[in-house]
Specification:
289 residues; alpha+beta; Jelly Rolls; Arc Repressor Mutant, subunit A; 2 domains; six-stranded antiparallel sheet; three-stranded antiparallel sheet; 11 strands; 44% helix; globular
């Protein structure tokens, strides 16, 4: 599926956007936009895709992305089917590079923050104390206007300047592929298909057919851009999803293996240990520490 440009309306008396997205689920499709974006999940769980990265979000998840980076947040089924007791919600901040004028990002005081901006071509998930501080500031911004809101954003920039606890999301390759015009639509179609179908068996002929490629050509294309084989990537996605499910004490490991797309417990255990260096049972125990 081709990423679409998705723009938010901006108030004329404000230089940047701050709003709370609320509803049964997050409605945005696989999309991109010219603004930098901070997304703080207040309520909901599910999968998020940033470039070629597929991860799993829960309450408190905080991601910062640069312009034109395709992304989407997909809520878990209970939100989509309106089975959750409370609606999904997130706080979103968007700003363009020159929202404070032509020269703001060239002043000496902003130099450290500019180094972080370079990483946003891949997107970052912010963790640790920085996430706690920024989350509090973003919640407060919903009640602020004028200089208070602007001051809070500048404080967020300052926190991010010194932040060392973060995870880079999209691979370095992803930006190069999109920049070079080397079939970004094909790349997006493959990733979108994996995201929506990884819980069932996806064969090589099936995924190659989605983008009208032969199996050999597809394998070469996938390995070139992901640096791993399709099967290795698919197992990483499945195991990542299983890690999320292991936090649910109501689900047995057998059920989690099935819901993560594995037909046998033996194969699930083997792939899980290969990627996490421990069994699913051992991983679940670490969540109780």
């Amino acid at each position: 599926m081709k990423a679409v440009e998705y723009r938010l309306p901006q108030e004329l008396d404000k230089s940047f956007i701050v709003f709370e997205e609320k509803g049964a689920f997050f409605p945005c499709p696989w999309h991109y936009h010219p603004e930098y974006e901070l997304v703080l999940v207040i309520k909901s769980t599910g999968r998020r895709m940033v470039g070629d990265h597929i991860g799993y979000f829960q309450e408190g998840d905080l991601v910062f992305m640069g312009p034109q980076l395709p992304h989407v947040w997909v809520n878990d089924e209970q939100y989509i089917q309106s089975q959750s007791k409370s609606a999904a919600s997130a706080i979103v901040i968007q700003f363009v590079e020159k929202f404070l004028g032509e020269y703001f990002f060239n002043i000496p005081e902003i130099e450290a923050f500019k180094k972080k901006l370079k990483l946003l071509k891949r997107g970052i998930a912010i963790n640790g104390k920085a996430r706690e501080k920024i989350s509090g500031l973003m919640r407060g911004m919903l009640l602020q206007n004028g200089l208070q809101r602007l001051a809070a954003l500048i404080t967020i920039f300052d926190i991010l300047s010194g932040c060392t606890e973060f995870e880079l999301l999209a691979s370095p390759n992803y930006e190069k592929v999109v920049r070079a015009g080397n079939s970004p639509d094909r790349f997006s179609t493959i990733t979108e298909y994996i995201m929506n179908n990884f819980t069932k068996d996806i064969t090589l002929p099936e995924i190659a057919g989605v983008v009208n490629m032969g199996v050999t050509a597809f394998c070469h294309f996938f390995k070139q851009h992901h640096k791993v084989t399709f099967v290795e990537y698919l197992n990483a996605v499945k195991v990542g999803y299983a890690c999320k499910l292991l936090g649910d004490k109501d689900e047995s490991i057998v059920d989690i293996a099935y819901h993560s797309g594995y037909n046998t417990l033996a194969n699930f255990n083997r792939q899980f240990r290969k990627l996490k260096n421990m069994t699913p049972s051992e991983y679940r125990k670490t969540l109780n520490i």
